[in-house]
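User: I'm putting together notes for a lab meeting next week and I want to include a structural view of one of the chains we've been expressing. I don't have a solved structure, so I'd like a prediction I can at least talk through. The sequence is below, exactly as it appears in our construct file.
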Amino acid sequence: ETASTTCSSPSLDDKPTLPQILSFPGSKGKIRLTQRIGSEYYYFGVFLLDDNLGTRIKVLETRNLKDPDRINCDIFTEWLQGSGAQPVTWRTLVTILRKTGLVTLADKIEAKFSS
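Assistant: Thanks for the context. Below is the predicted structure for the 115-residue chain, given as structure tokens.
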């Protein structure tokens, strides 16, 4: 086993936690992924939660009074509990971000793990 695969070294294959997602370290302070995704939550959520018909997202919209930050938080919470795209890792999250056009955000996350 090489040094890059030890437990202490963060990896794209690690499972993120909600606090990490809510306060991801960026080059200029913290990046709140929920805010960066913002109103793109619908497309993003459909992919992350494997919600092809968007029914789950509509429920979250109603429950959170269409507040994008709260909807994104719920999307992440459900995904972290095992609903949706598998495996629940940073790599899966980066893939979904790219798929939904949030490439800059995906690049920033990837860069954190390769530095």
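A couple of points you could mention at the meeting. Confidence is low (pLDDT under 50) at residues 1-6. The beta strands are 24-26, 29-31.

User: Perfect, that's what I needed.
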